[in-house]
Write a structure and sequence with these properties.
Number of domains: 2
Number of helices: 11
Shape: elongated
Largest sheet: 7 strands, mixed
Strand order of the largest sheet: 1-4-5-6-13-10-9
Helix content: 25-40%
Order of helices and strands: HEEEHHEEHEEEEEEHHHHHEEHH
């Protein structure tokens, strides 16, 4: 005899189906979706002959990453390789930049095929884990900070445990010639000078915005205008005259308020100059670190805690701007995802399995 239908049995079936689907997704081994490549980059069509050395290097990277046991062990993802070529920060003196991404995408990005990844969903949702290898990208681990025409500064990435002995920041190992970094510290003197220039620009901007407001109001002209329109509209003339006289009566107080605001800006500039003038040359030459004191300099409250350095790109780094597809810097970024117990072990294994000597050998 057939068991009678009940809402409870139907709910059980739905739950079983959902659990089986989830278990199936978890059990599905990582597979590689079709590789993608941006056809047109900021440096032009990505297939052009000028980029061949970069593509040859990325072919090597793809071969290394496709067989990486850590990536293949990532749970509940479909892997995808993507390559890009970009224009450099300074086309006159630096080579092209490129990046190879080997990333794992979760079920919400999967397409209908057995190992499809939807480009739109991947773009919208992003990858769960993976490795990105940047070529000739000096700011890959940096965050742009204050800048003007004379100085561009960056927040240096926090040092993190080394990947196989290489200098590592924000879980990105920097592979440069002779282990050289492409950035150097901004000095205290340079940073205070940048603050000074910035304050001078604030004062100049204040002067432009308040130039008309600081001019004396011509009450006599307003009174003449009121008398001209009085024959046509006496009420409008009285209103104009009242407003003009009220404005003139408050003018001194308003100008005093404006002058006070400007003086605050000038005082800040004077203090910056005095601070810099009072420092010894060796103090001005020290690396600038972000603190909680005046002008973001460290004070007593910062004692004993790590402070972020402000850095700039090293102009003496031996970039080759003539041979623009030359590989001079490689940055390997692999977030360890320590907060996710399912992803941390395979990502750690992925980094351990990388052949950093082979990566370093790509430097030309």
């Amino acid at each position: 005899m057939k068991a009678p239908w009940s809402p409870f049995s139907a709910l059980k079936c739905l739950l079983c189906t959902a659990l089986l689907a989830a278990a199936s997704a978890r059990a599905e081994p990582a597979c590689w979706a079709a590789s993608v490549m941006e056809e047109v980059s900021s440096a032009g069509p990505i297939g052009q002959a000028a980029f061949r050395p970069l593509h040859a290097a990325m072919d090597t990277l793809e071969q290394m990453l496709r067989s990486n046991p850590g990536l293949l062990a990532l749970p509940e993802v479909r892997l995808r390789f993507k390559r890009e070529v970009m224009e450099s920060l300074d086309p006159l003196t630096m080579p092209y930049q490129a990046v190879a991404h080997a990333q794992g995408f979760g079920p919400k990005t999967w397409g209908r095929g057995p190992c499809d990844v939807s480009p739109q969903a991947a773009e919208r949702i992003g990858a769960r884990a993976g490795i990105s290898i940047f070529i000739n990208t000096p700011a890959a681990t940096l965050n742009r900070w204050l800048h003007d025409d004379e100085l561009v500064t960056y927040l240096e990435g926090d040092p993190t445990p080394s990947f196989q002995g290489w200098p590592t920041y924000r879980e990105c190992a920097v592979i440069g010639p002779g282990r050289r970094l492409p950035w150097i510290a901004v000095t205290v003197g340079e940073m205070l000078a940048l603050y000074e220039r910035e304050q001078q620009r604030r004062i100049a901007d204040w002067d432009r915005r308040h130039a008309n407001a600081m001019k004396p109001f011509d009450l006599a002209a307003a009174e003449r205008q009121a008398e001209q329109i009085r024959p046509l509209n006496a009420q409008a003339a009285d209103s104009l005259l009242l407003g003009a006289r009220q404005r003139k009566s408050k003018e001194a107080m308003y100008h005093a308020q404006l002058a006070k605001g400007r003086q605050m800006l000038v005082s800040e500039l004077d203090d910056l100059r005095a601070t810099r003038a009072a420092m010894a040359p060796d103090r001005l030459a020290e690396p600038y670190r972000l603190g909680n004191g005046k002008h973001r300099l460290p004070n007593a409250s910062d004692a004993g805690r790590p402070l972020k350095r402000i850095v700039k790109l090293d102009r003496q780094f031996p970039w080759d701007g003539r041979h623009r597809a030359r590989i001079q810097l490689i940055t390997v970024c692999a977030r360890q995802l320590t907060g996710n117990p399912d992803y941390h072990p395979p990502m750690r294994d992925a980094v351990d399995a990388l052949d950093f000597a082979r990566l370093a050998a790509l430097l030309n």
